[in-house]
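Sat 14:20. Reprocessing the chain from the morning session after the first attempt stalled halfway. Input below, unchanged.
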Amino acid sequence: MKELTLNELQKLNLEILSDIHSFCEQNDIMYSLMYGTLIGAIRHKGFIPWDDDIDIIMPRKDFERFINLYQSPDFELVSPNDPNSYILFARVCDTKKTKVIGTYPWYKYNTGVWIDIFPADGVEESEDVFNKRIDHLRIFWQKQLKIRGALRPLKEVKGIELLKLLIKKIIYTKNIKIHNQKHKRIAEQVEFGSTKFWGQLSCIDSSKNNYYKIEDFKTTVLTQFENKQFRIMNGYDNVLRKCYGDYLQLPPINQRKPKQSHMHIYWI
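Finished this time. C-alpha cells:
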C-alpha cells in the first residue's frame, strides 16, 4: 500500500468537508470550523501548511440532528450512537479509498481519512465550578485513551510491542461504551445556550481552554478556506485567543509538524 502525502491528505479532507458543508446548508444545521482548521482559515485562508486534519464543531442540538440525518454516497458517518465506535464525538470518513493504522483505535473496524465533528455544550456561569467539572472529565478522557490503546488489534504489532499490548489488554478491560456513557452524562449537564458560556467537553485536550462566551457562537459567517467557502463562528477571534493566545503568530519551526504523526494513512 502507498502512504498518502500531506497534500493528498489535505485534498481528501477538503472533499469531506465540502460534502458536510453542503449537507448542513441544505438542512439548516449550524457548524463552524474549529481549532487548527479555524486558525488556518483566518491566518492562511486555508490549511495551516503542515496541518493534517480538519475539525468542526456544532451546538449539541445541531450535532444530534446531524448524526441522525447525515447521509452521503461518498463518505461514511461514525457517531457516538454507533455500537462499534469508541469515541464521544463524530467523524465522517472515507472508507472507499484509504485506510488508517494508528495506536489509538477509535472504531472496531478499519476506517480511512476522516474529519472530526465535535458537539458544543453549555457550561456553568462560574469558571471555577466549570473547571472542577472539566478536571473530572479529563480523568474520563485519559482513561478512554488507555482503554482504546488496549483495543488495538494484536496483528498490528510484534515483538516487545506485542507484549506491551497484551499487558494493556489485561489491565484495561473496562467496557468502553459504559465508560463513555458516564462521560457523556457529565458533558451534557448544561444545555447549550442556557447560560452565558459554552465548551467542547467530549474530547478533553489539556492544552486547550474550553470556556467560551455563548455570544461568540451565536451565528456563523462564510469565509475562504482554500478555494472554497465554509462557515466560522461570529466570535472566532475571541475563541481562538482564549484557546491559543496570539494565534496569528506562527509557532517555532520545531513545532510546525502534523499532529497526527502517530498514524499511517494508505491508499487501498
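Residues 205 and 243 are 11 Å apart (CA to CA).
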